[in-house]
Each structure stands twice: as C-alpha cells, then as structure tokens.
Amino acid sequence: MGAEQARRSRITPEREAELYGAVLDLLREVGYDALTMDAVAARTRSSKATLYRQWGGKAELVVKALRQQKPHFDEIDTGTLRGDLHATARREDDCHMEQNSALMRGLMVAVHADPDLLQAFREWIVEPEMSALDRMLRRAVERGEVSPDNPALGYVIHMLVGAFATRTLIDELPPTQAYLASYIDAVVLPALGA
Amino acid sequence: MGAEQARRSRITPEREAELYGAVLDLLREVGYDALTMDAVAARTRSSKATLYRQWGGKAELVVKALRQQKPHFDEIDTGTLRGDLHATARREDDCHMEQNSALMRGLMVAVHADPDLLQAFREWIVEPEMSALDRMLRRAVERGEVSPDNPALGYVIHMLVGAFATRTLIDELPPTQAYLASYIDAVVLPALGA
C-alpha cells in the first residue's frame, strides 16, 4: 500500500470522486476507444501530467473510476448467504445499473482488444470482486449453509455476471435489483443447495 | 415460408454454405462495423445485387450466416433433460466455440448500436433458440423431470448464455464442451431440481 498511498495522497477524496464521475460521463458519451487523456484533462480542469502521475494511463483511470462508484463487497456481511447475495444485488440502484450495463457492454469488447485495459480490469475489478465473493461463500460454508464440495461454488461469479450481462439481450430489459433478486432465489441459491 | 423459399431457391445450398462461411471469415477479420457488402461480394465473387436480393442487407446476411453454422436445437430429443442439455452443449466443437465466443463479443456491442442488426439477431437467433429451448423444457415438465412452477424455468436461457459469455472474461479460458457440461450439471440441473 505504501507507494499507492503516496500517489493517492496528492488529491483529496472529494476531488478524486469528482474526477471519476467526469471520466464515467465521458466514457458514456464517447466510448473507451475515443476517450482521450486530453478530454479528461479538459473536462476536469486538471493537467495531463497530474492524471498520468496519479493513474499511470487511461486503462487504470477508467477501471478505477468504474470500481470506485460501487460500494465494495467487503462491507457486506448480513449473517446469511441469502442476505449477503441480496445485499450484493442492491449495491447499485436501478438507474446506475442500467447505465452501467450499457458501459460494460462497450468495455467488454475494448477489454479484449487492449491488453492494458484487460490487465487493469482483472486487477482492479475482477480479482477484488472474486476474492470478496470467495470470502462470502466461505462464510456460508462455515455456517453449514453450503456443502464444501458443492460444484456450483466455482460458478457463482459466472451466474451473477451472466444474469447481469444477458438481461438486455434476451429480455429487452435493463438489469434491475428486482430481477437480480429473483435470479438469486431461482437459480443461485438452489444450485448451491442453500 | 412461401416468399422465403422463393428467395432462397435462387442459389444452391452448397453455394449458400460457402457464402456464409466467407461472411463469417470476413466478420472475424474486420468486425461487424467495418464489414461491407462490397467486401462480401468481392470475397465470394457474387454481385452486390444478388446479395441484396437474397438477404436484404448486411444485418440479415450476418445473422443468417451465424445461425446456419450451428445444428438446430430442434433436432435434439434424447429422452431426458440432462441428455438434451448436454447435446445442446455439444452442438459446436471446441474450436468453433472459441472462434464464436470472440465473434459474439464483437457482435454484442454492434447489436446495441444498430437497430437492424438487433432486430435480425432477435428474429433469427434469439427467438428460434428460445422457442426450441422452451419445447425442450416443456418435454422435461411433461416427463415429470421438472416441476411446472419451478421459477428457474424462466432463466435457463440466461444461465446457458451467461455461462458461455462469462468464461473468457472470468477464467481467461475459452468456453468448451467440457466446461458447459460441467456448468449444466453443477448449476442448470440443480436449479431446475432435476
């Protein structure tokens, strides 16, 4: 955390949140490929040197902006697996979920064409979410809610991301909290035998 | 089927398959946005007039090319739900599945930016696959394998498409027949109580 902390301490958390908000607005307006550090600098009235010093580059800046807007998994611990999964589905309100569903569709293609973005995406979004989910599932196993050798334990992340990603294409509807909650009860918990 | 049949009868099935193969090759090389009817005409030594008469436009041509390469669902009826789902997962060999996973990622973004492509995609891929899957599930309900009011019945398509779509991002591995078979046994069948 040392070097990271030192880099971060140069701007206030409020200013950082404002910057991330501007990055996500730009991302929605022009998409990842057309997003430039010049545009971010202009929109946020920062110097490009500051942006590069703080974030290294476009991939890291965009991925951290995405990560920052969502309450972290680790703050969730309700005492039951069902409670934890439902709280996870409620991390974003429906309006943000719809916006992010469009954003993520665009990013999923950019990710596979851009190794920097793929690496940042894995490091700052996929891996932290997966290890927080692993801890959530381990607690459920320790409480006796899920058998430790249930084969669905390895697929919970696929179920959740899959539910989110397929809603628009299949049903012509944005993913919502109610849809995710219903999917958790109909699919995720029964597959886990919970 | 009348008008459709009349349009189709102008070229042989072999020529049609050859054309679809060339369209998919081009799609892999340049992506949907950069694919032009001129390029398809040149690659397949056809006239653009023939292509437009036969397919109406780029969206319909691409979607039918995608649809044609996969054995249809309707030919699957093994007598058990598990047999049917496993046969569904084996419709494409691993090499084709990996190629198509990359293709689909590209198309999923194009689909949401292009109403013609979205409509063709729904009409020629999503709806036929969903109604074939509905028939497969209805047979399982009639055989008593799944309770008719199991809430997971409405999410089988989300589970299958989600498993396919999330494999590369989450595991850095292409979807394979073995992965889909394992997902069906660990998630889909337990969620259906089958």
Automatic annotation (TrEMBL), chains A, B:
Q: Which Gene3D superfamilies match?
A: Homeodomain-like, Tetracycline Repressor, domain 2
Occurrences of domain HTH tetR-type (ranges): 13-73
State whether keyword Cell division applies. no
Instruction: Give the annotated DNA-binding region, as residue ranges.
Output: 36-55
Q: Could you tell me the superkingdom of the organism this chain comes from?
A: Bacteria
Which Gene Ontology molecular-function terms are recorded?
Answer: DNA-binding transcription factor activity; transcription cis-regulatory region binding
| InterPro entries given in the database record | Homeodomain-like_sf (IPR009057), HTH-type_TetR-like_transc_reg (IPR050109), HTH_TetR (IPR001647), Tet_transcr_reg_TetR-rel_C_sf (IPR036271), TetR_C (IPR011075)
Which UniProt keywords are present, listed alphabetically?
DNA-binding, Transcription, Transcription regulation
The name of this protein is TetR/AcrR family transcriptional regulator
